[in-house]
């Protein structure tokens, strides 16, 4: 089978601001049509990685869009990339529609693609106003629309949900999923992890300028810890019974019981029921993406030496 090149390849990316190194040998690939979440704490290096890919910052290392290398002085392949980095740079005296006309490349498809984006992002009621009057969310929507123009193969979005209301968040999610199903690759940074959990196929976790984890969302969530919180009519006895059956139990708000692959809620209920214990409350406490990422970053080997 013919090998399809990755949509984006980043190899040995290092970045210095003066003498201060902010990226340390960053390596990763983005597969075509995947949505990749780039996550990490404030200052971890997400924006710097994105700016380096787009040749907006000088860096050391190799970056390729598909099979084509991109460098600070050689960036033809960036024609196939759409991006929104930090806040969009807009011309105050131009309307939103004039911005879209300015950035569109293919005149033949300009009118339909601009109209479709305006419609999909619900921008009709402000698109013919000058950008100087735009709110944060309106600017952000226009910046997103510009990133989606010209059918890019790769779209890079840095904190795209900034300033977006719930409807706009929903519209953007629908647009990203539609474009990704059509083959567009996305690299998206966001602190809104619940939203990334709904969108991303793959995750790259950055900490102190290094990649500390590259994984699929499914893999990460499958490895996450499953626990139940329960209250019984005799919690002390319940602890004794569960520990004797090799469950890890801690006392919190009720009993917190870790569940491994070989254990289950049904088995817990049966064990306690066999001893005539009454379960008064029971609920699942599965880790979400936030908890899983915090654990990755907290691991000592995740810290850059
Ligand atoms: N122009 C600059 N000059 C000097 N240092 C910079 C510059 N821009 C970024 N940095 C430093 O590089 C590091 C990475 O910053 P970056 O903006 O890439 O982080 P980030 O992960 O995007 O953070 P956030 O989530 O807060 O946006 C930080 O330590 C930051 O202080």
From TrEMBL:
Family named by the database record: Belongs to the ABC transporter superfamily.
PROSITE patterns: ABC_TRANSPORTER_1 (PS00211), ABC_TRANSPORTER_2 (PS50893)
A Pfam family hit: ABC_tran
Database matches in InterPro entries: AAA+_ATPase, ABC_transporter-like_ATP-bd, ABC_transporter-like_CS, P-loop_NTPase
Ranges for domain ABC transporter: 8-233
Superkingdom field: Bacteria
A GO MF label: ATP binding
Record has Cell membrane as a keyword: no
The protein's name: ABC superfamily ATP binding cassette transporter, ABC protein
Keyword Magnesium among UniProt keywords: no
UniProt cross-references to SMART domains, sorted A to Z: AAA
Alphabetic keyword roster: ATP-binding, Nucleotide-binding, Transport
